[in-house]
Amino acid sequence: MQFKNFFYVLLVASVMLSCSGKKENTSNRFEGRLVYKITSNLREFDPADSMSYQIIYAKDSLVKTDNFTRLGKQSYLKHILKNRAYTLMNFQGNKLALQSIPDSTKVEADKYTFFDRDESKEIAGLKANLVEVKIKGQKEPYEMWYTSEISHDYSEAIPGMKGLPVVFTLVIGEEELTYTLIEAERKTMDRDHFGLPSDYKVITTQEFEAYITAPQEEM
Description:
Elements: H1 2-19, E1 31-40, E2 53-59, E3 62-69, E4 72-79, E5 84-91, E6 94-100, E7 112-123, E8 126-135, E9 142-147, E10 164-172, E11 175-186, E12 201-203, H2 205-213
Parallel strand pairs: 6-12
Antiparallel strand pairs: 1-2, 1-11, 2-3, 3-4, 4-5, 5-6, 7-8, 8-9, 9-10, 10-11
C-alpha cells in the first residue's frame, strides 16, 4: 500500500505539472522538441540518467510530455484545442491511459505572485525574461525565466506566467526541483507521435484510484 500511495502522489504531481492552467492565443505555437534538465536541492542527478530530463514534443495544438521516474517512463498526451488528455503508464505490467480534462485541474489562483524584472538573456536560443515569483507558503521568492516566443500551453508548470517557462522551480515538500530548458529544436513532427497507443486501456481518474487501492490479488 505504501508503494501504491507513493505512485499515486508521483502521478498526480506529473499530471499537475503538465496540465494546469488556461489556454491562451495561438500566435506563438511551436513544432518540435523541448528538453529540460532537472536539478534538486536535496539529491544529485546523474547527467547520463534519463531521470535528469523532461522532454516535450509539440505539433501546433498537440503535446506529448515524457517524464522519467524510478517507476519508469510516463508520457502525457494533450490536445490543446479539444481539451483532452491522457497519461500513459505501465503499472504492474498493465498498460493504462489515464484520461483527464486539462482545464478541470484546480489550481489556487493566488498560489503564484509575479514581479517582472527588467532583465533578459538568451536561454536555449530563445529570448528569456526574468520574473520574480512568490510561491504561497514559501518565505523567499524564486527567480524564474520565461520566453514569450513559445506559448505557455506546452508546459504550464507555473500558471499565470506570460510565456513558456524556461527556468522554473517546483517545490514538493522540502525538495526544490529546478527545470532549465537546454534545447529548443524546431522540426517537423509526425502526427502519429502524438497518438494514443491501441494496446493501452483507457481509464478515468476515479477508476485509477480504485485500481491502485485494490488488493494485490485483484490486479
